[in-house]
Task: structure prediction
Amino acid sequence: MPRERSGAGPIPSPNIWHWPDIYETENRAQDVDGVVFGALRALADWSGRDVLDVGCGTGFHLPVFARDARSVTGVEPHPPLVARARDRMREAGLAVEVVAGSAERIPLPDDSVDVVHARTAYFFGSGCGPGILEAMRVLRPGGVLAVVDLDATVGDYGDWMRADLPHYDPTAVEAFFGAQGFELTRVRTRWEFDSREDLRAVLGIEFSGKIAQRAYEQTPGLALEVGYRIHTRRAPAGLLLP
Result:
């Protein structure tokens, strides 16, 4: 989910808002070995707990949480994606609620969830403070906010990110989250596509034309290594009384 501008609503996502079908292809190709979810389960196990997925998009990740969670809610600001996510849950027969909202205005009560998950959505470093405060508001004591983002220090994908975003400083982003009390876990994943055409299409929505072409030429097969950072912050559990 994109970051909000004060009083102007969310900034459109440059990929899923405009090319949801290609982004669906990207979601299917990402982390085919399940490394991110494995790390997330170790950091913030959602079994039997209430989960909130912030910026859930078309709801791709919601069924994974729904297998073990007590309840799952997806929040998404873009109405067409809200509709697609609801359709997905209905077709899958899952009792998952998808609501319109944003990271800065989550339509849930205080202390109502145990895990807040946000993957490549809104929480991109400096400027996301309001969203962090909002996540802390809805978390119960001891609950966890887990922010999953791409690691621009890893491999060819990281090189392409830094070339495409010359003002993006991954070290500064990590320092920001560290200063906000987050712990950092790094994981390396494998993306694998069904075809070179799918690979080209996904690179085309993630990078500018020149960098996308460079990335395509530097990826000889159907797979590539992509690093992720998982930033986690736990809500205070409160005082222990004698």
In short: Confidence is low (pLDDT under 50) at residues 1-8. The chain has one domain: 4-234. Residues 4-234 form a domain with the Rossmann fold fold (CATH 3.40.50.150). The first helix runs from residue 20 to 29.
